[in-house]
Amino acid sequence: MRGTRHRTRSLLAASAVVTVLLVPGALYAAGHVGAAGAAAPPAPEPEPSGAECRTSVHGSRVIAYCHNPYPSTDRVQLHTDCARWWDIDADSRPVAVGPGRTVRLDDRCWKEVRSAWVTHSNETRPAT
Question: Which positions of the chain have pLDDT values less than 50?
Answer without folding.
Answer: 127-128
